[in-house]
Write a structure and sequence with these properties.
Blueprint (H helix, E strand, L loop, with lengths): L25 H4 L7 E5 L5 H9 L4 E6 L2 H14 L4 E5 L2 H10 L6 E7 L17 H10 L5 E6 L2 H12 L4 E3 L16 H8 L5 E7 L3
Parallel strand pairs: 1-2, 1-4, 2-3, 4-5
Antiparallel strand pairs: 5-7, 6-7
């Protein structure tokens, strides 16, 4: 299947992306809807969770992406492969995370990944970044105790900001004594991660654990 050409940058604050997504009926999506859920925020072409879903069939995987053509292509690949533990949704996670997670049973969400999000370098554009305090608060509400949030970026400023926002919330504990992880704790690397490392550039990684209530 040929890759879809899409815009690299999408402004999540534009009117086009202000309608929250409507979650599907998960019993129609997943063969085993009670399995633990891994949410990949900003999944792009979805190759990371596609590999993870095949490697870990006892987990359900959900990728959310703001660029609709990528979601359509990714779901077509899922159908082609016959996977029943993976789905992709088109939407703006910053106004859709709560209704999305509300559609799952509490405690189902056990792992979240936010990898190489759009850095939005200009100061006036920082409010477009995906990791906002409201997103952290929502994840703290819905992720189960002991659940993990894995963050990585090739832009140190963005990685620091993401970590600061999770560290400032009392529900999350950063692992590794507040130092960057030298390796990825997950078994699959993203395309961006492999590209960055192949060019000898650093990747800034951090893992947060949801404290037990």
């Amino acid at each position: 299947m040929p890759k879809v050409r899409v815009r690299q940058h999408v402004n999540p604050l534009s009117n086009k992306y202000q309608t929250p997504l409507s979650p599907p009926n998960w019993t129609d999506i997943y063969a085993q809807p009670t399995q633990p859920l891994h949410l990949d925020i900003g999944c792009a072409r979805g190759e990371f969770v596609l590999s993870m879903a095949q490697l870990q069939p006892h987990w359900n995987f959900l990728g959310v992406e703001i660029r609709q053509p990528l979601v359509e292509q990714a779901n077509a690949k899922v159908a082609q492969l016959g996977l029943s533990n993976l789905h992709y949704l088109f939407g703006n996670i910053n106004n859709s995370l709560m209704p999305l997670l509300d559609s799952f049973a509490l405690g189902r969400l056990q792992r979240v990944t936010i990898q190489f999000p759009d850095p939005w370098f200009k100061k006036r554009q920082a409010k477009r970044r995906v990791v906002q305090p409201e997103l952290v608060e929502t994840l703290a509400t819905y992720i189960t105790g002991g659940g993990v949030v894995f963050l990585q970026s090739d832009v140190e400023e963005v990685a620091v900001e993401m970590c600061d926002r999770f560290s400032s919330h009392p529900a999350f504990q950063r692992q590794g004594n507040d130092t960057w992880l030298s390796t990825n704790p997950l078994p699959i690397a993203t395309e961006r991660e492999l590209y960055t490392l192949s060019h000898g550039e650093p990747v800034y990684r951090a893992l947060f654990v949801r404290r037990q209530d």
